[in-house]
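Slide 14.
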Amino acid sequence: MATALLASLTLAAPATPEQPIAIIAHGRWERASELSLSTLRRIYLGRITRLDGKRVERFQLPSGSRVREGFSRSVFGMSDAALEDYWLEQALTGGSPPPREFSSAKEIVDQVAQRPNAIGYVAYRDLIALDHGAVRIVRITDRDRSWHPADAGYPIRYR
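Slide 15: predicted structure.
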């Protein structure tokens, strides 16, 4: 009886709520204050390498990170493992290299703050906890909407 009760409580436990992922850019990079979801996707896939004539530096968290998995699913509609296959294919065909990896939100925030044409992503709650004055949060647009990570309906999330 106790085992059945425990099993039913386990099944009824709520799932981990989704958390927003903040897209960040260098604080003085005006062009990157707002990006469409499709432009963000093309930047991160290496299909757009320049904005306003300047080379974009892309940063990401390491494979296996819950935030990276959420970013991959939200932005590309695929798992991080499937995205790794994409990067392998790009390497074999002479395509664009993957974004540069850093192991923590702090490292990404620091790197974006130091590079004028840099873009990265971190958990929004991690960004809030860090001193992030030299980076800006990029608003994400899709059709006639524009979102900040704190807004309801923000499309880039992780579990």
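Speaker note: The chain has one domain: 17-158.
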